[in-house]
Amino acid sequence: MRIKKDLSRSGSQITDPALFKQRRRLIKAAAGSVMAGFGIGLAPLAVAENSKVFSNAAKSSLSLDEKPTDYEDVISYNNFYEFGTGKGDPARNSKNFKTRPWTLSVEGEVAKPGIIDIETLLKTQTLEERIYRLRCVEAWSMVVPWIGFSLGNFLKQFEPTSRAKFIEFTTLYDPEQMPGQRVSVLDWPYVEGLRIDEAVHPLTILSVGLYGEILPNQNGAPLRLIVPWKYGFKNIKSIVKIKLTEKMPNTAWNIAAPSEYGFYANVNPSVDHPRWSQARERVIGGSIFTPKRKTEMFNGYTGQVGHLYSGMDLSRYI
């Protein structure tokens, strides 16, 4: 187990943002002071989109005891096919993506369905910083200090019924803003799913930020899923709908390539992807001479989640 029980270090000790990022914050702060001096208030939505800093996120005991990946690598090396299939495409193509106003619909097998806006979410949820590894099926990984809140606790207010066995998540569909959706790479909009016990597990969160700040567009703003023991494609981005269902939902990559992407997508180094091995992974941010690390079962979270799959053939239910 790689769980750190005492996270007494400050945010500055676990992060190492680039100098340009520090200058960006100073410029924004100075701009805000000048406008205030002229009696001009910054629009709340602009602050939320462009300069939101989470000062109230508690450190989580569920975090890894590992140094986070450099901020610049986290925001520049992404899988987000709605903005292109290249790793640098999301950062280039999402600059004008509008994440305000934004609402999230919760429906299906719940007693109290509803719609909630992102600003209400930010004000009402208990935010935590959780340092989790993101492991992608292409055999690379990074360690990110996510800001988010428990999905299980969030769902309680909607009162799931006894028929709720699975949860279906849906990404925004907006080809005008998301150029990747103009190409039939996948059956849009992007859909992912979890079993209900996976969704309410304490490790599962809805993330609204990273490195202490609001999520960049290319990382899934304004709201994305983080399930740290699963491959990255399960961690759906820019969520607009959560639907609790009785039956297992059809998911985007499972529809596109069922022989390569199963519903569960648990990190399992003993089961190779049909086109490459999953036994070892490349840590993003290292040099070309940095050796790959051994991939851990369930991404290192076996002690916490292994019991969820007791009795399952994990070579079949991939």
Q: What is the CATH domain class of the largest domain?
A: Alpha Beta
Average pLDDT taken over every residue: 87
Gap between N and C termini? 22 Å
Quaternary organisation: single chain
Give the percentage of residues in beta strands: 15-25%
Helix-strand makeup class: alpha+beta
| Radius of gyration computed on alpha carbons | 19 Å
The number of E-state strands comes to: 13
Name the overall outline: globular
The CATH superfamily of the largest domain is identified as Oxidoreductase, molybdopterin-binding domain
Helix share of residues? Answer: 10-25%
CATH fold node name of the largest domain: Sulfite Oxidase, Chain A, domain 2
Order of helices and strands: HHHEHHEEHEEHEEHEEEEHEEH
Biggest sheet, open or closed, and with what strands and sense? 8 strands, mixed
Low-confidence stretches: 1-50
The overall number of domains is: 2
Please identify, by name, the CATH architecture of the largest domain.
Alpha-Beta Complex
Number of helices: 10
